[in-house]
Write a structure and sequence with these properties.
- The structure is a single chain.
- The chain has about 250 residues and is α+β, with helices and mostly antiparallel strands.
- The chain has two domains: about 5-85, Winged helix-like DNA-binding domain superfamily/Winged helix DNA-binding domain (Arc Repressor Mutant, subunit A, Orthogonal Bundle); about 90-105 and about 115-250, Endonuclease, Chain A (2-Layer Sandwich), CATH 3.30.870.10.
- Helix content is about 50%, strand content about 20%.
- It has helices at about 10-20, 20-35, 40-45, 50-65, 85-105, 120-135, 150-155, 160-170, 185-190, 235-250, and strands spanning about 65-70, 75-80, 115-120, 145, 175-180, 195-200, 210-215, 215-220, 230-235.
- The strands form two sheets. The protein has a seven-stranded mixed sheet with strand order 3-9-8-7-4-5-6, sandwiched between helices.
- The chain is elongated and about 70 Å long.
- It starts with 8 loop residues before the first helix and ends with a helix.
């Protein structure tokens, strides 16, 4: 290999969009493509960049755990870490962005405008659920008007037990109001976790949707193909739906 392949130009551009500088992206892609340890001079040769650009990029890549420094006596060489690190980095950025948005919202005088977010596909929904638990604090609330617990379980797949156990460890309670038809399934799989409170309504239909009310958002889950989640970010709307939930909760049977 004597240069970054032309086909990798798109990957470099995507990494730049992700937040890396052009130099950082080119160094990381080159190390991935080479697959072995490289010194700074070799990296400069392969990337056609001045050595000073290489040595500016490397500390940032190391701090983000995308690149590993390997000491060779007085010399140092560098090796790319697996691309899966990008997912971890992305999750951390998403959590930081959510925390920053909440802090900014505390000083905002914009009003009660609504924001929308749409998630599509199993992996996106699984990640969304994990991120919610990771950044949960003392404002955590989760009220579900269900009827599709089997659909949710199918979306979460093998990660469901681990996800629910993490919620239990963080003492994050959930109130679930479902269809009486799904009682056996819910009690056996999800309801076995102590932090799950649940009641059932005889006339609530079993279906393919969930309505989930949290502290400052309302989410509509549709367990079709592809599965979708529509998130409305508005504390005012969340407060209204919570009052509706509490009315139904009083009608449910444990």
């Amino acid at each position: 290999m004597t240069d970054i392949k032309t086909s990798n130009t798109i990957l470099v551009e995507k990494l730049v969009d992700f937040g890396l500088s052009n130099s950082e992206a080119r160094v990381y892609v080159t190390l991935l493509e080479y697959g072995k340890e490289l010194g700074g001079s070799k990296l400069a040769l392969l990337t056609h960049m001045p050595r000073q650009y290489i040595y500016i990029a490397l500390p940032k890549l190391i701090s983000q755990r995308l690149v590993e420094e390997i000491k060779k006596g007085k010399q140092a060489k560098y090796k790319a870490r697996p691309p899966q690190v990008i997912e971890t980095l992305g999750r951390r950025k998403a959590i930081e962005a959510g925390d920053l948005a909440r802090e900014l919202n505390q000083i905002s005088n914009i009003g009660n405008e609504q924001e929308f977010e749409v998630l599509q596909g199993m992996r996106a929904i699984q990640q969304y659920e994990r991120d919610l638990v990771t950044r949960a604090d003392d404002t955590w609330e989760c009220y579900i008007i269900g009827g599709a617990s089997a659909g949710y379980s199918a979306i979460m797949g093998e990660s469901l037990d681990e996800h629910l156990d993490e919620m239990r460890k963080k003492e994050l309670s959930v109130k679930y109001l479902g269809s009486d038809d799904e009682r056996p399934f819910y009690e056996e799989y999800i309801g076995k976790f102590a932090n799950q409170e649940y009641r059932f309504l005889i006339n609530l239909p079993k279906g393919v949707t969930h309505l989930v009310i949290r502290h400052d958002s309302v989410s509509f889950y549709t367990f079709l193909n592809p599965p979708l989640v529509y998130v409305i970010k508005s504390k005012q709307i969340a407060d209204n739906y919570r009052a509706f939930f509490n009315m139904l909760w009083g009608m449910g049977k444990g």
